[in-house]
Amino acid sequence: MGCFHSKKARKTPGYEDPTVLAAETPFTVSEVESLYELFKKLSSSIFDDGLIHKEEFQLALFRNRNWRNLFADRLFYLFDVKRNGVIDFGEFVRSLGVFHPNAPVADKIAFAFRLYDLRETGYIEREELREMVLALLHESDLILANDIIETIVDETFSQANTKDNGKIDQEEWKEFVLKNPSLIKNMTLPHLMDINLAFPSFV
Amino acid sequence: KFFNAFEFISSMSSGFDLSSLFENK
User: Fold this and answer.
1) Which segments of chain A are extended strands (E)?
2) Which of A42, A112, A183 sits opposite B21 (nearest CB)?
3) Per-residue pLDDT averaged across A144-166, rounded?
4) Which of A136, A184, A186 lies nearest to residue B17, judging by beta carbons?
5) A127: which residues sit within 8 A by CB, 6+ positions away?
6) Contact with chain B for residue A69, Cβ under 8 A
C-alpha cells in the first residue's frame, strides 16, 4: 500500500507545463526544467512552500533577507504578475525570459520602462527619476550636493523628454534607449544561456 | 560630459543585478 516515491515528482503550486512556458519564452523545454531546479532552491530558502517570497528574493540577491532596495522591490513587483505577494514558477520563467540574451530588445525596453515608472502612470516623471537617484545614492553611500543631483536629473530629463512636457512616455523612452543602449545592459543575463549547465535537470 | 542618471542607476544599483540569483547558490 502506498509506497510512492512521490516527493521527487511533486510540483510546486504555480508549476506549469515546461512545453507551454518554452513556447512563450526564449527558453527550450530542458532550459525551463533547469530553471525549475533553480526555482526550487530559491523558493525553499526560507519558506518551503514552492513560491518565492520577497524575503527569499532579497536573500538570493543580497544574501540578506531584510536588505531592502528600491530597485529589487520594483523587480519583485514586476515579476509578481498576479500581484499576490509571491512569485510562482510560471511568473519566474516568463519574467526571466525578458532577460534572456535572445529576448526581443523591445521587450527589454518595455520592461525597463515599467521598472522606472514607479507610480505606474504610464510615464516616467521627473520626481520619480529624482527619487531613484536619491535611492541609489543612499544605497551606495555616495554623497552629492543637492544642486548637482538636480542638474543630473534635469539634464537627463531634458535629453529623454524630447516632447518637453515634463514626463517621459514609452516612445521617448524607446528613442532614448536606442541612442544609449547601455541603459538596458542589465536587462540581459548571460547566465541564462547556459542555465542547463548550472542547474542540470533530471530529464 | 553628459551624466546620464538612468545609466548611473542601472549600472550601480545592486538591486538590478539579477545575476546574483545564479551566483549566490
Assistant:
1) 52-53, 86-87, 124-125, 167-168
2) A42
3) 94
4) A186
5) none
6) yes
ipTM for the complex shown: 0.89
Cβ of residue A20 closer than 8 Å to a chain B Cβ: no
pLDDT of the residue at A147: 95
Outline where DSSP puts E strands in A18-122. Answer: 52-53, 86-87
Cα-only R_g, chain B: 12
b/e per residue, A23-58, with b = 16+ CB within 10 A? eebbbebebbbbbbebbbebbebeeeebbbbbebbb
Per-residue pLDDT tens digits for A173-184:
999 999 999 999
| Angle (CA) A74 A54 A76, round 5° | 25
Average pLDDT, chain A: 91
Q: Tell me which chain B residues have a C-beta less than 8 angstroms from the C-beta of A116.
A: 6
User: A183, B10: Cβ pair inside 8 Å?
Assistant: yes
Please give the Cα distance from A116 to A113 (Å, whole number): 5
Tell whether A35 lies on the interface with B, counting CB pairs under 8 A: no
A75 pLDDT more than 50: yes
> Does the beta carbon of A132 lie under 8 angstroms from any beta carbon of chain B?
yes
